[in-house]
C-alpha cells in the first residue's frame, strides 16, 4: 500500500516537472519573438529607413550581394545607382572593402563625365562608406560638392584675372618710371612718359574702383537706403560723365523718349551702370556716329532704358557671355579701348539688385542695343506719367535718330526690331 502511494506521488511530481518545463520553453520562445521583431521589407534594420529619409546627403544601402536595398531619388538622378546596382565602380569597390574589414572609408568622386558632354555634365561628390549592422549591409552617403567646386573655380579665375589686369598697368608704371629717370636730361621725353604714366594710373584707378563696386553689389545682401530716383537725372548725369570720350571721337550723344519716369534705387549705382553702357557704345563705335539713350514705360509696372549705337556689333556666339567678368569678345581691341573688363558685369549686377534685368540685341557690323528694364515707382499711375504726355520735341528727335540707326542696321521697316534675348 505504501509502495503504491509513493509511486503515485512520484508520477505526479514527474508530470508537474514536465508541465513546468514545457511552459518555460513556450514562455522563452514568446519572449524571443517579442524582443526580436521581424525585419521590415527590403532587409533594412528597424528605424534605418526613417533615418535615411531625413539625411541631406544622397543615401544608398547595399546588401551582402551588392544589391541596392534602398536609394534616395538624388542618388538615382545623379547616376550613382541604376536599377538595383551601384554603377560607379569606385564606390562599389569601396563598399566591398568596407564589408570585408568593417573600416569606414571616404573619398571624392566625379560622376557623369563623358567626352560628349564635357566637364559641364560632371558632378563632384564627397562619398563616405560605412558598415550598417552585422548582416553585410553597407551604407553609402554622397554629398554633392558641385556648387562648391564651381564657386572655387570662379574664385580662382577671378583672382587670376585680377592679377593679370593689375599686372599690366603696374608693370607699365614701373617701366615708365625707369624710363623717366633715365631721360632726366630730356624735358620733352619726360613730359611724354609722364603723360603715359598718367594714363596708366587712370586705368589702374578705374580697375580698382570697378572691383570695389563689384564687390559691393555681387552678394546676396539687399541695397541699403533705396530712394525714389528720377531717370531723367540718371541719364543726364551718365551722359555728362561720358561726354569727353564722345567728343574725342566726334560721336553725338542723343537722349529721348518719355520724361518724368521714376524708379526706386541707388542713384549713383544706376548712373554708373548706364555710364558703363554709354562708354561701351562709344568705345566700340566708329567716329562720326551717334549713340542714343531713350527711356520709355514699357508696361504698367516697368520702365526701360535703351542704349543704341552704330558700332561693330557682337558676334551671335558671344552674346550670352559678354556679361561675364573680364570676358572680352576681342581682347586686342579691348586693350586698345582701355576697358577693365568689368563694366558689363557691373551693369548686370546693378540691374539685378534693383529687381530688373538687362538684355542685348546686336548684329555684327550694324550696332547694338542694350536694354535695362526696371520696376516702375508707383505703377498705379500717381507718379508715372503716360508716354504720350511725357514725350518732348527733343525726345521725338532722339527717337527718330534711334529709329534711323535701327533701319540702317536691319535694312527693314522702322517699327520692326528683333526681340532681345533674355540673358
CATH architecture identity of the largest domain: 2-Layer Sandwich
In total, the number of domains comes to 3
Superfamily (CATH H level) name of the largest domain: Histidine kinase-like ATPase, C-terminal domain
By DSSP, the count of extended strands is 14
The unreliable regions are 32-41, 114-119, 381-423
Q: What gyration radius follows from the Cα positions, in whole Å?
A: 37 Å
What is the fold-level CATH name, i.e. the topology of the largest domain?
Heat Shock Protein 90
The secondary-structure class comes to: alpha+beta
User: Major sheet: order of its strands?
Assistant: 2-1-7-6-5
Helix percent reads 40-55%
Proportion of strand residues: 15-25%
- C-alpha geometry: elongated
Mean pLDDT: 75
In the CATH hierarchy, what is the class of the largest domain? Alpha Beta
Order of helices and strands: HHEEHEEHEEEHHEHEEHEEHHEEHH
Main sheet, how many strands, which sense, barrel?
5 strands, antiparallel
Number of DSSP helices? 12
Separation of termini?
A: 114 Å
Explain this structure.
- The chain folds into three domains: 90 residues, PAS domain (Beta-Lactamase), CATH 3.30.450.20; 71 residues, Helix Hairpins; 191 residues, Heat Shock Protein 90, CATH 3.30.565.
- Helix content is 48%, strand content 20%.
- It is built from twelve helices and 14 strands.
- It has a five-stranded antiparallel beta sheet, sandwiched between helices. It has a five-stranded mixed beta sheet with strand order 9-11-12-14-13, with helices on both faces. The chain has a two-stranded antiparallel ribbon with strand order 3-4.
- A hairpin with a 3-residue loop joins strand 13 and strand 14.
- It starts with a helix and ends in a 13-residue tail after the last helix.
- The C terminus is likely disordered.
Amino acid at each position: 500500500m505504501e509502495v503504491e502511494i509513493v509511486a503515485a506521488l512520484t508520477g505526479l511530481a514527474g508530470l508537474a516537472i514536465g508541465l513546468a518545463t514545457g511552459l518555460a520553453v513556450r514562455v522563452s520562445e514568446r519572449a524571443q519573438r517579442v524582443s526580436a521583431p521581424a525585419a521590415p521589407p527590403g532587409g533594412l534594420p528597424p528605424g534605418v529607413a526613417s533615418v535615411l529619409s531625413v539625411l541631406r546627403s544622397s543615401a544608398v544601402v547595399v546588401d551582402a550581394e551588392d544589391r541596392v536595398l534602398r536609394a534616395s531619388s538624388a542618388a538615382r538622378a545623379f547616376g550613382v545607382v541604376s536599377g538595383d546596382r551601384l554603377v560607379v565602380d569606385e564606390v562599389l569597390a569601396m563598399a566591398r572593402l568596407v564589408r570585408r574589414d568593417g573600416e569606414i572609408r571616404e573619398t571624392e568622386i566625379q560622376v557623369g563625365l563623358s567626352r560628349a558632354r564635357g566637364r559641364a555634365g560632371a558632378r563632384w561628390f564627397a562619398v563616405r562608406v560605412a558598415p550598417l549592422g552585422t548582416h553585410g549591409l553597407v551604407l553609402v552617403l554622397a554629398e554633392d560638392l558641385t556648387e562648391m567646386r564651381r564657386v572655387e573655380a570662379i574664385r580662382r579665375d577671378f583672382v587670376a584675372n585680377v592679377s593679370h589686369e593689375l599686372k599690366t598697368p603696374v608693370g607699365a608704371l614701373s617701366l615708365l618710371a625707369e624710363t623717366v629717370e633715365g631721360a632726366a636730361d630730356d624735358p620733352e621725353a619726360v613730359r611724354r612718359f609722364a603723360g603715359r604714366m598718367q594714363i596708366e594710373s587712370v586705368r589702374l584707378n578705374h580697375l580698382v574702383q570697378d572691383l570695389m563696386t563689384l564687390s559691393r553689389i555681387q552678394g546676396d545682401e539687399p541695397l541699403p537706403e533705396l530712394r525714389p530716383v528720377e531717370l531723367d537725372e540718371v541719364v543726364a548725369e551718365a551722359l555728362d560723365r561720358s561726354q569727353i570720350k564722345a567728343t574725342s571721337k566726334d560721336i553725338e550723344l542723343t537722349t529721348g523718349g518719355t520724361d518724368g519716369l521714376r524708379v526706386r534705387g541707388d542713384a549713383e549705382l544706376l548712373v554708373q551702370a548706364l555710364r558703363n553702357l554709354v562708354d561701351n557704345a562709344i568705345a566700340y563705335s566708329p567716329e562720326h556716329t551717334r549713340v542714343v539713350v531713350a527711356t520709355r514705360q514699357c508696361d504698367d509696372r516697368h520702365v526701360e532704358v535703351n542704349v543704341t549705337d552704330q558700332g561693330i556689333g557682337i558676334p551671335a556666339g558671344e552674346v550670352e557671355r559678354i556679361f561675364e567678368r573680364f570676358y572680352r569678345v576681342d581682347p586686342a581691341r579691348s586693350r586698345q579701348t582701355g576697358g577693365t573688363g568689368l563694366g558689363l558685369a557691373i551693369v548686370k549686377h546693378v540691374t539685378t539688385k534693383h529687381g530688373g534685368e538687362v538684355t542685348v540685341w546686336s548684329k555684327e557690323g550694324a550696332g547694338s542695343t542694350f536694354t535695362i528694364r526696371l520696376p516702375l515707382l508707383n505703377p498705379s499711375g500717381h507718379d508715372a506719367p503716360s508716354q504720350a504726355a511725357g514725350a518732348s520735341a527733343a525726345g521725338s528727335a532722339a527717337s527718330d535718330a534711334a529709329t534711323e540707326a535701327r533701319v540702317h542696321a536691319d535694312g527693314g521697316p522702322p517699327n520692326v526690331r528683333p526681340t532681345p534675348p533674355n540673358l
